[in-house]
Automatic annotation (TrEMBL):
Lineage, opening ranks: Eukaryota, Fungi, Fungi incertae sedis, Mucoromycota, Glomeromycotina
Domain spans labelled Tim10-like: 28-87
Name under which the protein is recorded: Mitochondrial import inner membrane translocase subunit
Native source organism of the sequence: Ambispora leptoticha
Annotated region (Disordered), positions in chain: 1-23
Cellular compartments annotated: Mitochondrion inner membrane
Amino acid sequence: MSFSSDYGLSSSTSSTTMEGRKKAVMDQVRSELAYANLQEIVTKINEKCFAKCISKPGHSLENSEKQCVAKCMDRYMESWNIVSRAYLSRVQRESQLQGGSL
């Protein structure tokens, strides 16, 4: 006897359940990847902007340091967004080319 018939499940019900579980796992993986990317961006911004803008660390930031850090963060995020869009565009183009040739 099959698992489905042992538990009174039809094959369409177990298929639907498996698809739901698969989607949930994929959503969780996407969420964790997004979080890991965010952590990496924050770490890189901290490293790059601190090295560039903070010449003498102390208990507080001077106004010029605050402005430098703010501009550095903005530029880093803008650059990251441009690179990300270009990368996604390239992946989509390559995916379409591969899909068209199959």
